């Protein structure tokens, strides 16, 4: 199977709402593309998002998306994303709870799958402005399930809670570098 596989464009969504969130996202992008089978194509701005669902009182999420070209098959890419999550000490006990890093595969080429282990496109991406909005900023012509990603973002219920995170001061509780 592996070896001569063609490159497939995939969209990955990254989120963090624990610890050094921006540093985690930057390091995770590096980790995700730190192998020859995954090539970085594009990176979105970082947005700040109120946590959706899950326990109350969580810190805001920082979210971004990246585009990669990969020769990994979809399940290999999922395993790779999960290994990067684990490398950042993601806590998995509380579903939708605070987490240092979440990496989701939003699309893998035109692949469609209903497998709960890997559903493609990601089943909740269409309603998540924290995925759609940075994706539309990265690629204004992006399309998901036949719809404009920018239009889907504008309709998403969590859109009003979104802000650009680019100008935030240091998140560190300690002394600033
Ligand atoms: P969520 O990302 O929805 O908040 P998790 O990150 O805890 O939740 O993911 C739970 C499970 O979702 C993972 O074990 C994974 O197998 C499955 N999953 C299904 N489709 C996808 C996808 N497109 N991308 C990432 N994980 C997925
Ligand atoms: Mg996930």
The main sheet comes to: 6 strands, antiparallel
The CATH architecture assignment turns out to be 2-Layer Sandwich
The CATH class label is Alpha Beta
Class based on secondary structure composition and strand pairing: alpha+beta
**Total count of helical runs of at least 4 residues:** 4
Distance separating the two termini? 48 Å
The SSE string, one letter per element, is: EHEEEHEEEHEEHE
Helix content: 10-25%
Bound molecules: adenosine-5'-diphosphate, magnesium ion
Mean pLDDT: 87
Spans of at least 5 consecutive residues whose pLDDT stays below 50 are: 172-177
Fraction in beta strands = 25-35%
The CATH homologous superfamily is termed 7,8-Dihydro-6-hydroxymethylpterin-pyrophosphokinase HPPK
Global geometry: globular
